[in-house]
Design a protein that fits this description.
Blueprint lengths: L19 H14 L3 H25 L11 E13 L2 E12 L5 E2 L2 H7 L2 H12 L16 H5 L1 E2 L3 H21 L7 E11 L2 E10 L4 E9 L4 H13 L8 E5 L3 H10 L3 E5 L4
Parallel strand pairs: 5-8, 8-9
Antiparallel strand pairs: 1-2, 2-3, 2-4, 5-6, 6-7
Helix pairs in contact: 1-2, 4-6, 7-8
Length: 275
């Protein structure tokens, strides 16, 4: 039997007859790959996002080019949009869908999910607490590739500052309104601290296993009985148990002790050893 000496044919991927859309996508990813793996992943993710948006539109409207008299929504073009990516806002093409009668806009679920700015607030808060200034905020972001970075927004010091203020206001509101009825404390620390030129009275609870739980804070000129009394009364109104004995650690100020005696039935008061 004669030996087959024909060389096995290899496939040249560069010569594959790919659809135009795929060819363009591969070229974009090749450019991103030179900037690192993360930039490549970002480029891939944005292309996947566009595919997901198209899939959402098809699910809401139906296949493109097919007449359907019973459809509830129709395509309505596209417009510039923004999604959250790596602590910044990145521009994308946002598809629009309207109801078949043209009376209202129909939400595209995938775009709504990725367009949310809630994550930006969390990231700004984390970086500010890590002592990264608003001016230096972009230095703490992950690299996403030069092309995407040029179209990014939301990293200016004013934008970061606004998000930080909003996030801290939301966190403070949650702290001051959380339900305390299920909290079992063995100790309560109440003291005034100085923050810049402000005096803040802070209440810190300690559970049986030693977990410290911030309960409330109030701003005032001094640690007077009115401010501390209102703070402790607020704890009681939010469900904190005040009828059982509890160890209360104070700095010895008469105003603090008076307020504790007025709110708690059986407080065991201990003056801080440092005072």
């Amino acid at each position: 039997m004669p030996k087959d000496t024909h060389r096995t044919t290899t496939t040249d991927h560069a010569q594959l007859d790919l659809p135009e859309r795929v060819t363009v996508a591969v070229a974009e990813l090749a450019s991103a790959a030179r900037e690192g793996l993360l930039a490549l992943a970002v480029g891939t993710g944005l292309q996947v996002l566009q595919a997901m948006l198209a899939e959402d539109v098809a699910r809401l409207v139906g296949p493109k080019g097919r007449h359907n008299p019973d459809r509830a929504a129709v395509r309505h073009g596209a417009e510039p949009g923004q999604v959250t990516l790596g602590g910044r806002r990145v521009r994308v093409r946002r598809p629009r869908v309207r109801s078949a009668d043209g009376t209202r806009e129909v939400a595209v679920p995938t775009y709504q999910a990725f367009a949310s700015t809630e994550l930006l607030g969390h990231l700004a808060l984390e970086r500010m607490l890590a002592k990264l200034s608003t001016r230096r905020y972009p230095a703490g972001l992950e690299p996403i590739g030069a092309q995407v970075e040029r179209a990014a927004a939301g990293t200016s010091k004013s934008a970061v500052s606004r998000r930080f203020v909003a996030a801290t206001e939301h966190a403070l509101t949650e702290l001051l309104t959380q339900d305390l009825s299920g909290l079992d404390l063995v100790a309560l620390l109440v003291d005034g601290i100085r923050v810049a030129d402000h005096c803040c009275v802070v209440a810190l609870g300690i559970t049986l296993d030693g977990t410290k739980i911030p309960l409330a804070l109030a701003e005032g000129a001094t640690e007077n009985a009115t401010i501390v009394g209102d703070l402790l009364t607020g704890l009681r109104a939010r469900g904190l148990e005040v009828t059982r004995p509890i160890l209360v650690v104070l700095d010895g100020a008469k105003a603090l002790r008076r307020a504790v005696d007025d709110v708690f039935d059986h407080p065991v008061i201990q003056r801080c050893q440092l005072h």
